[in-house]
Write a structure and sequence with these properties.
By secondary structure, the chain is an alpha/beta fold. It has eight helices and five strands. The chain has one domain: HAD superfamily/HAD-like (Rossmann fold), CATH 3.40.50.1000. It is 51% helix and 13% strand.
Length: 191
């Protein structure tokens, strides 16, 4: 079976996220929200790979586990916009990876960006990534589960109308990008 689609992880693949965690820690420390950042990481790790059916169920579970009254507001109004701001100041897309993506696109492959976080379009724009380079953008929470949730990978294949075996997943993490891709029969290339 020949390949028909390439899927690229965002964070750590389309740009080098070196020092991003540290920059996020400092930004939240100065705002007095470091405990929120720590809790977000704990919750994300605890539900990684689990399927919740849809975006609403995912968010309900995520913020219930977060166990802070204003967690949703912090996440959408502070944390994610701050991440986008940090990206725009300090990060640019990885030209080698983008050249690979464009090469596949020229060959007629469907091109996809798939991230575990929201604000994907905003983050892509922040690193000066041209949205014209991809056909589809997917956020794992909107698909009902974080990587390596196999249902999220299957959902992408269904939405772009290709079989998992016809896809190549490019990512920086074997335990999430690689494990999810391999669980449904996709090829995985670590960047």
């Amino acid at each position: 079976m020949s390949n028909k689609a390439v899927i690229f992880d965002l964070d750590g693949t389309l740009y080098d996220k070196k020092l991003l965690p540290l920059r996020l820690v400092f930004s939240q420390l100065f705002k007095g929200k470091l405990s929120y950042l720590k809790r977000e990481r704990e919750v994300r790790k605890s539900i990684s790979g689990k399927f919740f059916g849809n975006h609403e169920n995912f968010e309900e579970h995520f913020f219930q586990l977060f166990n802070k009254k204003d967690a949703r507001e912090w996440f959408y109004c502070d944390y994610m916009p701050e991440m986008v701001s940090i990206l725009s100041k300090h990060y640019k897309f990885n030209p080698k990876v983008v050249n690979i993506l464009r090469e596949y696109r020229i060959k007629g492959y469907k091109t996809v960006v798939f991230s575990d976080y929201g604000f994907v379009e905003e983050k892509l724009k922040a690193i000066n990534f041209d949205l014209e380079w991809v056909d589809y953008i997917f956020e794992a929470p909107a698909l009902g589960g974080l990587k390596p949730c196999k249902e999220a990978f299957i959902s992408i294949c269904n939405k772009i109308k290709v079989n998992p075996e016809e896809c190549i997943m490019f990512g920086d993490r074997e335990d999430t990008d690689g494990a999810g891709a391999k669980s449904v029969g996709m090829k995985f290339i670590k960047v």
